[in-house]
UniProtKB/TrEMBL annotation:
Protein name: YhdH/YhfP family quinone oxidoreductase
Limits of the Enoyl reductase (ER) domain: 13-326
CDD domains attached to this UniProt entry: MDR_yhdh_yhfp
Top-rank lineage group of the source organism: Bacteria
Taxonomic lineage from the root: Bacteria, Pseudomonadati, Pseudomonadota, Gammaproteobacteria, Pseudomonadales
One family name in Pfam for this protein: ADH_N
Record-linked InterPro entries: Acrylyl-CoA_reductase_AcuI (IPR014188), ADH-like_C (IPR013149), ADH-like_N (IPR013154), ER (IPR020843), GroES-like_sf (IPR011032), NAD(P)-bd_dom_sf (IPR036291), Zn-ADH-like_protein (IPR051397)
Coiled-coil stretches noted in the UniProt entry, renumbered to this chain: none
Length: 329
């Protein structure tokens, strides 16, 4: 029997959940093609939802969250992967209803795993994690819709968060003029250091929800928050502009009107990094290891399993700044 450490969420009474580091057995992991010794994981908003008992994310407890994992194959039943291969697994059911990356071992289908690109060490891959993959997918979608640096300023909402902060760094690297919208005025200097040319107060983006249209302001946007802010962003895109929508921290529902679409020809682009075909994920990871390789040293803090509960509280309260890398020594 191989024992390993994992963060486990248990329901102690109706809707009261406890979070603790426990010893688990490899034999108790679900069936799968690959047994992976996880070296690094990362914290995403969805992990915090799972850790707090959100049944939309995780139906059954006890459960180990962690939608991201990077590690080394220890056993493989398929020809495509050999013992010793370094792999990245993000999304699909990992950490939702399949024991996830907040444990030292995972067992998953081979169809969830990609070999890490040469230029991207496991640690760097997990500093990016699902947040980085999502930021890259958002920027890719905007570019596919014809957005270029010459078009004007690109707004990033929820800019101090995981997806938002990486989007700021990536857009800057690609030569865009970047406006970072945040509810954390005190992080303005940090956002400027990451590459924001302009800091926008989140409260400003919450005004004018009842107005049919707003002044044309943004060539494009990466929206990580949803809710009324997304509605206002759609109404303040320049003619032909696009917004990539990926998040819901400000709410899942948003009002809508056809006016921005039929008067300014704007585009609302949905981004899903979870169920995306593996081949698309792999091409995005390749890009992040080469032409979109980012220096993220400024936005990452490293924790071990025992320190995760504090980070989970912080991300749930909207107080997260940057990315949390989880080390599974
Ligand atoms: P984080 O918590 O790291 O970032 C979210 C940010 O949103 C916060 O830091 C804060 O930034 C802002 N925010 C928090 N609460 C509110 C609020 N009430 N109103 C407005 N803004 C708020 O989360 P992640 O970066 O991990 O994820 C961001 C969103 O994207 C989440 O909703 C997540 O579920 C979603 N997501 C979707 C994916 C997909 O495939 N579609 C993949 C990954 C994430 P600030 O203080 O700077 O405003």
């Amino acid at each position: 029997m191989t024992e390993f450490k994992a963060l486990q969420i248990s329901e102690i009474t109706d809707n009261v959940f406890q979070c603790e580091v426990v010893e688990r057995q490899v034999e108790d992991l679900p069936a799968g093609d690959l047994l992976i010794r996880v070296r690094y994981s990362s914290l995403n908003y969805k992990d915090a939802l799972s850790a707090s008992g959100n049944r939309g994310v995780t139906k059954n407890y006890p459960h180990t969250p962690g939608i991201d994992a990077a590690g080394v194959v220890e056993a493989s039943s398929v020809a495509e992967f050999a013992v010793g291969d370094e792999v990245i697994v993000t999304g699909y059911d990992l950490g939702m209803n399949t024991a996830g990356g907040f444990g030292q071992y995972i067992r998953v289908p081979a169809s969830w795993a990609i070999k890490r690109p040469q230029g991207l060490p496991l640690r760097d891959a997990m500093i990016l994690g699902t947040a980085g993959l999502t930021a890259a997918l958002c920027v890719d979608k905007l570019e596919q819709a014809g957005v270029t640096p010459e078009a004007g300023t690109v707004l990033v909402t929820g800019a101090t968060g995981g997806v938002g902060s990486i989007a700021v760094v990536l857009l800057k690297k690609l030569g865009y003029q970047v406006a970072a919208a945040t509810g954390k005025a005190e992080q303005g200097v940090w956002l400027s250091k990451l590459g924001a040319d302009e800091i926008v107060d989140r409260a400003e983006l919450q005004q004018g929800v009842d107005r049919p249209m707003l002044k044309e302001r943004w060539a494009a946007a990466v929206d990580t928050v949803g809710g009324d802010i997304l509605f206002n962003v759609v109404k303040s895109l320049q003619r032909g502009g696009s917004v990539a929508c990926c998040g819901l921290t400000a709410g899942v529902a948003f009002q809508a009107s056809v006016l921005p679409f039929i008067l300014r020809g704007v585009n609302l682009l949905g981004v899903d990094s979870v169920e995306l075909p593996l081949v698309v994920k792999a091409s995005m990871w390749d890009k992040l290891s080469l032409q979109w390789k980012l220096d993220l040293s400024e936005l990452c803090q490293e924790v071990e399993l025992a320190e995760l509960p504090g980070s989970i509280e912080r991300i749930l309260s909207g107080g997260m700044v940057g990315r949390v890398l989880v080390r599974l020594d």
